[in-house]
Design the sequence.
């Protein structure tokens, strides 16, 4: 799997190159996006749109583009756009007296195997999105500060500060969320 | 588990879409491979990859540069342009054309 040739092969219309990229990044993108939006269907739509944009914009990609970073950036921006739309919808549903969707247990929370991990998923879901995304990129995806900073549009120093605040927010959320079965 | 949970994030379960959803996503993207480019890419491709379009653009550019550098209207005397279109009475036309029978008709 020659990652350096991916963009050239995509530009040439090589569907096998797309499949290699799709198989490698689809689970990673989905794991990132599904933890940013509470709906699994919405996360699937975002991942699909990310890959559609990759194909549509392949001719304009520079051969030296970090493809993983590009995909995470597009997915993150789509999730943010949808988040803003959902905020409007949530305020409308609050006016109508509907239950806010954040009270519903997320799919990832249900999927987490152990009680400790379910606790962590619930705490993570309570952290603000701007903190959650940096926690996911660095803590879950294992990206470097430079890679995460590029995706989030932050300088190295700004990323370091945000990560520090995000870890503090996660710690607070871990304390606030009662472990399962504790009442 | 570490105090703030950060070190444990790497242990969160991996996530993926259902096989049918993955197939749908793949099909939605691959259809863009087989079809013509869309949106801006299509415009870009059509405009610059067609030799006829490039030729037309080049001819128009040359014409525009030539027209801008040649003040044709300014070179003509104003009265010439005005007189050339003014209707003439037969007698005046006769004098201009040296036709006496028309000159006398006035």
Sequence:
């Amino acid at each position: 799997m020659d990652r350096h040739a991916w963009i050239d092969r995509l530009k040439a219309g090589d569907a096998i190159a797309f499949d290699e990229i799709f198989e490698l990044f689809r689970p990673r993108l989905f794991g990132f996006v599904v933890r940013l939006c509470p709906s699994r269907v919405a996360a699937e739509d975002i991942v699909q749109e990310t890959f559609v944009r990759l194909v549509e914009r392949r001719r304009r990609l520079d051969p030296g583009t970090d493809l993983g970073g590009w995909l995470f950036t597009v997915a993150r921006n789509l999730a943010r756009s949808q988040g803003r739309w959902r905020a409007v919808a949530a305020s409308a549903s609050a006016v109508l007296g509907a239950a806010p969707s954040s009270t519903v247990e997320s799919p990832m929370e249900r999927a987490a195997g152990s009680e400790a991990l379910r606790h962590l998923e619930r705490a993570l879901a309570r952290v603000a999105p701007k903190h959650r995304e940096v926690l996911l990129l660095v803590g879950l995806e294992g990206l470097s500060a430079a890679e995460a900073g590029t995706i989030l549009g932050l300088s190295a120093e700004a990323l370091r500060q945000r990560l520090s605040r995000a870890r503090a927010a996660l710690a607070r959320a871990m304390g606030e969320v009662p472990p399962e079965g504790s009442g | 588990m570490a105090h703030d949970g950060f070190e444990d994030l790497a242990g969160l379960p991996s996530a993926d879409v259902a096989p049918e959803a993955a197939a749908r996503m793949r099909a939605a993207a691959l259809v863009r491979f087989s079809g013509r480019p869309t949106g801006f890419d299509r415009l870009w491709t059509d405009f610059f990859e067609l030799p006829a379009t490039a030729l037309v653009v080049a001819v128009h550019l040359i014409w525009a540069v030539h027209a801008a550098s040649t003040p044709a209207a300014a070179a003509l005397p104003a009265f010439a342009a005005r007189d050339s279109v003014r209707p003439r009475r037969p007698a005046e036309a006769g004098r201009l054309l040296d036709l006496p029978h028309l000159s006398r008709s006035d």
The longest helix of chain B spans residues 51-69. The interface with chain A takes residues 1, 3-17, 21-22, 24-26, 28-30, 32-33, 37-39, 41, 44-45 of chain B (CB under 8 Å).
